Amino acid sequence: MSFINYMAREINCKLVYYGPGLCGKTTNLQYIYERTNPEAKGKMISLATETERTLFFDFLPLSLGEIRGFKTRFHLYTVPGQVFYDASRKLILKGVDGVVFCADSQIERTEANLESVENLRTNLAEQGYSLDKLPYVVQYNKRDLPNVASVEELRQMINPTSVPDFEAVARTGVGVFDTLKAVAKLVLTELKKGGNG
Amino acid sequence: MVNPQMVMYEEEFNQIQTVVDRLVRDANAKVVFIVDKNGQLISAAGDIDNVDTTSLASLTAGNIAATGGMAKLLKENEFATQFHEGEKANIHIQLVGNRVILVVIFDSRSSLGLVRLRVKKASEELNHIFETLLKKVQEPGADSPFAEITDEDIDNLFND
Ligand SMILES: Nc1nc2c(ncn2[C@@H]2O[C@H](COP(=O)(O)OP(=O)(O)OP(=O)(O)O)[C@@H](O)[C@H]2O)c(=O)[nH]1
Ligand SMILES: [Mg+2]
What we know:
The complex is a heterodimer.
Chain A: E1 3-5, E2 10-18, H1 25-34, E3 45-48, E4 54-67, E5 70-78, H2 86-93, E6 98-104, H3 110-126, E7 136-141, H4 151-158, E8 165-167, H5 176-192
Chain B: E1 6-8, H1 10-26, E2 31-36, E3 41-46, H2 53-73, E4 81-85, E5 90-96, E6 100-106, H3 112-138, H4 151-157
Antiparallel strand pairs in B: 2-3, 2-6, 4-5, 5-6
Helix pairs in contact in B: 1-3
Magnesium ion binds at residues 25-26, 54, 78 of chain A.
């Protein structure tokens, strides 16, 4: 649910990075944080375990610039990917405007990816959202590793509806901004269509 | 769409800001701010140059969401009030009309009793303002300023 503030002349949108444990959601945000000008970002908050697994969420506020005199601000969140944090994932999805599904390309993570997309669909549906109607993009991460599934295979499994998708190596930043821009664009396009109620 | 879009107009913004400004004074607070349940900061007053209100807003919403989740599991109504006592700073969190969250940060110059009293009055006023705002947003013809933007406008945002 975007928030249009006529007084501050700004529009705020919420983006959520979803995906199985260790797929690289937090790494995406860290890279974005590192590569963004200080004036365009706020502090990045990570509520994590001692072993740096996301416990509740990561949060990164970004300003992307102005459209027609309105500042566009995006609040980026990641969910905790580990299966047993499902209650927290549901909370983070509240009020979401756009979703990035971050898949782990490694063959041994195939099942985890599938479970996680299914979980995303279920958790959205529980709140009355449909994944098919929401601004949504897919990222195939960890393309640098040797034991990865082909993009075609991943596409068939994870992206049957052919939403925009990107290959990525979040650790070095490959594909990270392409993914972000794509989802941000879809969110703004949705607003343009008149998401006003 | 599931949620009605959150919109803030000048008139209501000013009314809200008046309540928040007054609450800082009446409660002897350091900082007062209002956040929606999704973590978007709506209004803030007091010594805001020395706190990261954006971060606080997101964490407050996360906190309310988490305790709301616990309440649900216990088949309890949402916990409307929370209080966290620190060595120097204290935080009082109040859910207003189940829509927005009113946060008061105060130190030893104030007291929990005073804060509670002032928050109660401010909550009633805020609830009223947000009700009016919600009605306004749901009126037909309350167009989004984004209805007129072009694909080019959106593309331009990403050309750097
Ligand atoms: N080789 C490689 N490693 C990556 C890549 N992206 C992330 N990693 C590593 O994968 C590990 C997990 O990354 P995180 O970003 O913490 O994963 P996450 O999805 O946030 O995990 P949870 O918080 O548990 O849900 C870290 O050691 C990262 O450095 C990548 O593209 N290639
Ligand atoms: Mg993480």
